Amino acid sequence: MLIKAAIIRAIIPFLIMTGISLLMRYQEIDATQVRSTFFVGLIVTVVAAATVIYDIEGWSLLQKSVVHFIVMLLTVFPLLLLSGMFQLNGFLDYLKVFGLFLAVGAVAWTVSYLFIRKFG
């Protein structure tokens, strides 16, 4: 059931962002922008699908958060590296992207947690 929910949550952003990417390509917009838009779509798709982790009953928030982080590390982080949105000339560049990945993830997790606590 979780897999079905993940697919349903993922399909909408995937279709929208792929459609936008195709429109951009058709309009002959810069290939770098088209590629970045498509990769953002892939990232949003993965993040949306992974939200089902938080629906698993019987798991603590810590367990859910650790599994979610691992899924993001194995999917979103490589997508960021492959996206072409970052200049990657050496180890320090990869480290900067990893730091950005951690910072955005921490902010997103905290905002989501506070929102759900207040309104969920």
From TrEMBL:
Pfam families named in the record: DUF3021
**Parts of the chain that traverse the membrane:** 7-24, 36-54, 66-88, 94-116
Q: Which UniProt keywords apply?
A: Membrane, Transmembrane, Transmembrane helix
Q: Which domain of life is it from?
A: Bacteria
For this protein, the record's InterPro entries field holds: DUF3021
Q: Where is the signal peptide?
A: none
The protein's name is DUF3021 domain-containing protein
